[in-house]
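Hi there. Long-time user, first ticket. I'm pasting a complex I've been working with (about 525 residues overall). I'd like to know whether the download I got is complete or cut off, because the file seemed smaller than I expected. Thanks.
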Amino acid sequence: MSKGLQLSKLIVGDAQADRVVPPTGFTARLTLFAAGAMAFLTVFALALSLASGRLATRWGDELAQSSTLRISAPEEQMAAQTAAVLTVLESTPGIASARALSVDEQRSLLAPWFGPDLPLDSLPVPQLIEIVESEEGYDGAGLRLRLQAEVPGAVLDDHTRWRKPLERAAGRLRLLGWVSIGLIGAATAAMITLAANAALAANAQVISVLRLIGARDSYIARAFVRRFTLRALLGAAVGTALGALAVFLLPATQESGGFLTGLGFQGFGWALLGLIPVLAAVVAYVATGAAARRTLGELT
Amino acid sequence: MIELDNIAYSYGGGELLSEVSLKLAPGSFHFLTGPSGSGKTTFLKLCYGALSPTAGQVQLFGKDVREMDREDHAMTRRQIGVVHQDCQFLDHLSVRENVALPLTVSDRDSLEQHSNLKELLTWVGLGHRASALPPELSGGERQRAALARAVIMSPDVVLADEPTGNVDWEMSQRLLQLLVELNKMGKTILIATHDLNLIRSAKHHVQARVLRISGRKLQLAGADL
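Hi, the file is complete. Here it is re-exported in full:
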């Protein structure tokens, strides 16, 4: 029998097996609460992971698509060097277009820093060239070597310097989120194992009677496994719903809001939330099954 | 079906049984007697595989007990009905559910079995107590419920450990009558008891053999009881 079929049989059927173990209100509520609380935390860890993942991608995309080339040269050589650079760029694979900025454009770029009345003509302002990459991108190191040889006054700034640490930070944050989810899952398994052990110990008498009348270990284990799996499923469903609601009610995201307000789910992310209760149920199923087998194996 | 071949059983302290051999033939009726602490319950446990002998060989339905795993033991217990001294019920389930428990755990809980269950409860005189919880039953009622549970799987063998231990004479006669009826239906019966009067009264109804544990050995008692 496949695991999935076994699981569905476990959930729908065999309420009769459930009856043979006396109900225990207190541990049941504790298990529900633990599963719920863990699911609630998982929602935030997941939100963190997805948000930092999006952030890393966005920063990467925005900064990677364009680069800037700066030419510092004496005024009389400027035009010649600009032309040389443009020739080099045109023959570099991976560059969609390259364009020298006009004097007006450069002025408007500098205006925020020096004011609109800057006498640009009388200052040795370097010439800027805007490069737009094609999708496959170009080889920055190779281009630098060529420029060094042909136009020593040109400096390429492909934003890698800025992008890499940002991407790395966002990646770490995402990793941290996934590690948290893993730890939450492990902690859930530990808690459910403890609860299941307590339930098995409390029902030692019931188990021995069931063994005496010919119940197989798998039957006895099923009675406990079903119980804890359903509790974890229900608790985690409630916890996930509350967590999702909390995330939903966070102040709305603003485009410029940066990281903190970007904490939320989009599209596929909401679907991932549905997996949390299922995973909690699987964790409970495995943990209780292992605990039951261990306890039953120790009996004579 | 149950064969003990020159077995011995010792607890940490010392030997309780030694050089015991017995072959329970189908359809036979045995009493097992002996003083308290002589090892009657231990002997029964050896017979249904709850204990393994420390020496010798026990075969249950042709299988060596030492080679049986937990799954085999579960299956064997469906073929041997046991009335335990302390009955061992699940106190949160009704008498009806307790008696039906062997069916429930072996997934044979069908509708047809339900009418059998009703019949069986009437047979042991508990038809009117079916919905009661075990702690609400009297000693005699508990023993009869335990007997009903022991036979509901229609086992080939019924082992009873002091089934008349804490019931009055009239009730013990009734229980004996039920066991005799089972024997007439072809079941093999083994009753452990220290009540010699019970054994004497049984002789009028059934051809029973009496086994006595004495000095760690199992002896076939004579007709001098």
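A couple of notes from our side: Chain A has a mean pLDDT of 81. The beta strands of chain A are 66-71, 95-100, 127-133, 154-157.
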